[in-house]
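Homework help board

Subject: predicted structure for assignment chain

Our instructor gave us this sequence and asked us to write out the predicted structure in token form, then describe one feature. I got the tokens but I'm not sure how to describe them. Can anyone check?
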Amino acid sequence: MSRRPVPRPRCSLLLALVATLLCTGAPAHAQAAAATTAQTLWLCHPAIPDDACDGSLKTTIQEPDGSTKVEDPPVPKNPPVDCFYVYPTVSNQLGPNATKANEPEEQSIALYQASRFQQQCRVFAPIYRQLTLASIFDGGFTDATRKIAYDDVLAAWKDYLAHENHGRGIVLIGHSQGTGVLRRLIHDQIDPDPALRKQLVSALLLGGNVTVKAGSDRGGDFENVPLCTKDGQTSCVVAFSTYLDDPPPDSVFGRTTPGPDRVSGLVTKPGTEVACTNPASLADNAETPFHTYVPTKMFAPGTLAAGIAVVYGGVPPSAPTPWVQPPDRYTGRCARIGGAHVLKVRPLPGARHLNAFPYPSWGLHLVDVNGALGELQAVVDRQTAAYLATATPAAAPQLALTGPKRCVRTAVTLRLSGTGRAQVRALELRIGGLRVARDRTSPFAVRIPAARLKRTGATSVRVIATLNDGRVRTLTRTLRRCR
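My token output:
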């Protein structure tokens, strides 16, 4: 978001159906338990049972001619890269900073914006004490409150790198406040670090006024991390804010403002402009139809649920499957309009007109991610393929099995050892092709019942170690019964 002051919301005829939510606040919600790794509370994490980014991606494709079909895209068990997602402003709490409660709003936004990326990556999303919706309109963005939000995400980032990453490629995903936080994170942690820049597959920084030197692909927020300007380019940024109607002179997005940005805290450099990259045509910025995907589950009650209804002019798209591609089709390209640099979209024949929310100055902020979600996923697919083709293969971890050194009389326990044990996420023991035992918890040990060992001669066993990055190491051991 820019530093430009935002007026306090007023109940209007346009927002009549949501006046209570916007003018008197949102109802309280029951809080879900948040999974913890070290000091990080995770909204999305591949190892937690209530992962908000996990779920069915079965999708009803609704064509403009009225026909439909259902697709059920596969989700890989071991995606080759990770995504680190920082969600936008969703909290209906009344203070300037939210608590670390895992509330329905956070779960809804993770579903809407991040869960479909489980086709491309393992998704990690920390819960953080973000600036609330109330603070947007009540002057709650200060150095102190901004620092609280950023410090939470920075700590989660360091926790993730130390305990979860293991050298894997990383896709950063942010929207609105999430983009502001990631702009600071890239500026402070990644842009000056060649090793981290090499690990960066992509950064999708949407709805957040990323800046570059005018006429260049960098030189604003980042000196070394450029904009993505061609398919398959890695270690680069995709950034845009969406408008259907022309952005007004006071547009919140697409324009630079002097001084520090109120979300990232980064100071706008002279001679810079807001970046825009067309996710459907990175190289040529050709006007291209977008693939819109939205969940059919209603967003958690509150300001954003009301806003979605306003954007669609009524009931949002629906279908009997968890996801839908609506029959409304839109096309778009980056354009400079009245001094604003934005992703300008237009409806194709038969598509409904999408309304700005909460004001014309914000444009289609609420659909920045979902409006071209298919294209964003395709960008990440191509970037991941290019990254994997050029990345130096990780060194094979040092692993070994410890167990009895002589003949055995009873059940046997084999334990995993070696300096590479921290890179292992599961251990499986097989005899003659059949799985005998499995262990998913460090320090990893598998037990072989005595009945599985041959009474005479040797029994050959295989222990398969699955690594955090999806690779597999196979260890063998021969066991003999005592005579």
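Reply (TA_rk): Your tokens look well-formed. For the description, you could write something like this. Residues 16-390 form one domain. That's the kind of observation they're looking for.
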